[in-house]
Amino acid sequence: MHPAYALSDAATVLSPALVFFPDLIRRNVARVVEMAGGPHRLRPHVKTHKTREIARLLLDAGVTRHKCATVAEAEMLAAAGAPDVLVAYPLVGPNTRRLAELARRFPGTTFSTLVDHPASARALSAAVAAAGVTVGAVLDLDVGQHRTGVPVGDAAADLYKLAASLPGLVPAGFQLYDGHNNQPDRAAREAGVREFLAPVLELRAKVEAAGVPVPRLVCGGTPSFPVHAALTDIPGVECSPGTFVLHDAGYGSKYADLAGITPAAVLVTRVVSRPTPDRVTLDLGTKAVAPDPPLEKRVTLLDFPEYRTVGHNEEHLIVETAGAAKYAPGDVVFALPGHVCPTVALHRDVLVAEGGKVVGRWAVAARDRVLTV
Ligand SMILES: Cc1ncc(COP(=O)(O)O)c(C=O)c1O
């Protein structure tokens, strides 16, 4: 277990709890800034932490560009003083009006969002024009994940030009999110990026030759970050990792080229039962740690004998271990979440630990779908 996780006051911590370690968060931010070649090459995704405090910590590190997935996250960022916020999600229905309202309320922040269909571009334009504001339109390119976005090609160019021509929309660049590009091997991720990059650069040149600027390419998440960070010869590359701030057991054990980034969010849990001689049951159910990784990767228990996770219910995590006899109800166990982002969203607030003890509490402010807008 990382020495920073040891808490002298663990006995008084209500479990299950999620604890953030700001010293480690600052180190992760500093490492990523260094790998990126400066804060101006970053547009970190706020969805991992959803807290005002980490947004401010990034602003203090010189990061001015931010990415988010929800209007609530965008509001939290703008209220924290972020000057440039990309809502990297297709906004439809009432959310177009909500973004327009944010742009009206926070004139010191430049907002942008994704477009990947003429209908949503028109609806966005109508909402922002009605509010008398402008927002950036970032063309969402499908570079292989096949989740959202348009394929790289002539239709993509036409959509971007259409968005640029609509009232209230300003052409703001392309998003290339390659979440599928998550192979452990760095060379495989590099090959993945090489495969989609050349056609994207051709598209950019074509669109710019037609007089429509493409000021930025917003690239990737944490796994492909080291690869995108190395694209220093391409103007306007902004790397958009999110998970790195807190990191987790899932990414932590997988990518050798992310060395120096340390999990900075730890779960404090307790043994609540030892129902059989080889079973230990913890108060770390699916309401405290995200259940989206496969059972065996859902949590990593720290300083714990070899074990196998055999069950996970709303309030219980059940593990089998030959070392169960060492544990009694009430014992504290530390654990890393397999997937930290949805784990954070399960907690209304998190504990903050410094110098080996709990020193405060941060609200997971953008966990709510609606703040004020
Ligand atoms: C559009 C987009 N950008 C960036 C990220 C950040 O990726 P990661 O969590 O790997 O850091 C995500 C993650 O889901 C995303 O969906």
Task: Walk me through the structure.
This protein is of the alpha/beta class. It folds into two domains: 3-17 and 264-366, Lyase, Ornithine Decarboxylase, Chain A, domain 1, CATH 2.40.37.20; 22-247, Alpha-Beta Barrel (TIM Barrel). It contains ten helices and 17 strands. The strands form two sheets. Strands 1, 10, 11, 12, 13, 14, 15, 16 and 17 form a nine-stranded mixed beta sheet that branches. Strands 2, 3, 4, 5, 6, 7, 8 and 9 form an eight-stranded parallel beta sheet that branches. α3 (71-79) packs parallel to α4 (94-105), α4 (94-105) crosses α5 and α6 (154-165) packs across α7 (186-209). The protein is elongated. The two termini are 42 Å apart. The protein binds pyridoxal-5'-phosphate (PLP). Residues 45, 67, 88, 177, 179, 221-223, 240-243 line the site of pyridoxal-5'-phosphate.
Are there runs of 5+ residues with pLDDT below 50, and where?
none
Largest beta-sheet details: 9 strands, mixed
Number of strands: 17
Ends distance: 42 Å
> What's the CATH architecture name of the largest domain?
Alpha-Beta Barrel
CATH topology of the largest domain: TIM Barrel
**How many domains make up the 3D coordinates?**
2
Structural class: alpha/beta
Shape: elongated
- Unique ligands: pyridoxal-5'-phosphate
Q: Residue-averaged pLDDT, rounded? A: 97
For the record, the CATH class of the largest domain is Alpha Beta
As a percent range, the share of strand residues is 15-25%
Report the order of strands and helices. EHHEHEHEHEEHEHEHEHEEEEEEHEE
Can you give the helix content as a percent range?
A: 25-40%
* Fourth-level CATH superfamily of the largest domain: Alanine racemase
Helix run count = 10
Radius of gyration: 22 Å
